[in-house]
Amino acid sequence: MYDQLKNKKKTLAVVGLGYVGLPIALAFARKFRVIGFDINQSRIAAMQARQDPSHELESDAFEGADITFTANPDDLKAAHFFIIAVPTDVDAHKVPDLTPLKKASATVGRALKRGDYVIYESTVYPGCTEEDCQPILEQESSLTAVKDFKVGYSPERISPGDKTRTVTDILKIVSGCDADALENIAQIYGEIIKAGVYKASSIKVAEAAKVIENTQRDLNISLINELAIIFDRMDIDTHEVLAAAATKWNFIPYSPGLVGGHCIGVDPYYLLHKSKQMGYDPQVILSGRRVNDGMPAFVAKRLVQLLTQKGKNLSACKVLVMGITFKENVADIRNSKVADVVQELMDYSINVHLHDPQASPNEVAHEYRLTLVDEISNGYDAVVVAVSHNEYKSLDAAYFKKIMKDKPILLDIKAMYRREDMEPTLTYWRL
């Protein structure tokens, strides 16, 4: 397979061209002939015009790429090595939603031929590739996995907003349904991954490795978030505590925060789901999720307490929330916990203005039914700086006082500013 792809006698296809799929498709397209497939025709049109709909890549990223973008599933029949990189989310009840993954499997299954390869990059629970997706491929293709076509799993390792560690600079885990598949998959990915590949012993091991990466981070952050809640009651600055503790050589530096996005806030639920299916009810993982999911309410309640202490009527208050994306300097608003903060404040009848220089107003309106203000006004009773976008880093106490009324309150969720730089008349609180 590798030689035929290298000589462009066969074609590689990437199904799903979002934050994960597009970068990997373009990387492969500098080595192989690639078909980039997505069901969203407007996204395809943008990519055909050398534009990244996710606003992560510049137009020059498309240069030198042998790639054809299409929304026509029939075009996939020309491919022989398929990479599925569609999103995996959870539903309103925090149960894994495999709908996009299953639909993508069916689409690829209808294009499968003997000798083809199908590699999954979407984050899933251990066993999903072989137990949930592989049967769909077999049903749609009337072929038998391993015997007629090969299956593999190589978990995505994309860091949105990171311009230094791109997809080719991050070590890649690969796995296959048998030894022959593993070697071919490793060789093909090794063509583009400069950091090298790690061969997992099985598909399930690779799936498990991916899902615990973010589960571990989730639990570490949940500990710090719980400590922040405790220290806040003690009137101790959490970041000063962390700075002191970090002087010990083996202290692991984590910061409190709102845990959103499509990875840390989602992946643990996949492991929880599979664990419960196996008859074990996890305690530590679930506890960490409860703490992190409860942080938006904690932040909103803390602001309400501060407003009340200042003698302000909540229904007459106007609050500015700065930033709604799930992390700094990206446009991605998926699973934003800032939106939960905004909703909590609105439940107190507070008038909330929402500003974000990175996010799309249309996407925010569609996803959360919230409106972004074009310009920051004034007369605010409080300001919540929720995301550390570069555009907010140069702001100072004088700026915040200028846009606020008397008895101003500043909540600095990401600890962007130094406490010693704040003026005595400005009530400053950070998580």
Walk me through this protein's architecture.
This protein has helices at residues 2-6, 21-28, 41-48, 99-109, 128-141, 179-190, 203-233, 238-245, 267-277, 284-293, 295-309, 337-347, 361-368, 390-393, 397-403, and strands at residues 12-15, 34-37, 67-70, 81-84, 89-90, 96-97, 117-120, 150-153, 172-176, 197-199, 318-322, 351-355, 380-385, 404-412, 427-430. It folds into 3 domains: 2-204, NAD(P)-binding Rossmann-like Domain (Rossmann fold), CATH 3.40.50; 211-247 and 257-292, N-(1-d-carboxylethyl)-l-norvaline Dehydrogenase, domain 2 (Orthogonal Bundle), CATH 1.10.1040; 294-431, Rossmann fold, CATH 3.40.50.720. The strands form 3 sheets. Strands 3-2-1-4-7-8-9-10 form an 8-stranded mixed beta sheet, sandwiched between helices. The mean pLDDT is 94. It has 431 residues and is α/β, with parallel strands linked by helices.
Give the SSE layout.
Layout: H1 2-6, E1 12-15, H2 21-28, E2 34-37, H3 41-48, E3 67-70, E4 81-84, E5 89-90, E6 96-97, H4 99-109, E7 117-120, H5 128-141, E8 150-153, E9 172-176, H6 179-190, E10 197-199, H7 203-233, H8 238-245, H9 267-277, H10 284-293, H11 295-309, E11 318-322, H12 337-347, E12 351-355, H13 361-368, E13 380-385, H14 390-393, H15 397-403, E14 404-412, E15 427-430
Parallel strand pairs: 1-2, 1-4, 2-3, 4-7, 7-8, 9-10, 11-12, 11-13, 13-14, 14-15
Antiparallel strand pairs: 5-6, 8-9
Name a few traits of the molecule:
431 residues; alpha/beta; N-(1-d-carboxylethyl)-l-norvaline Dehydrogenase, domain 2; Rossmann fold; 3 domains; 5-stranded parallel β-sheet; 38% helix
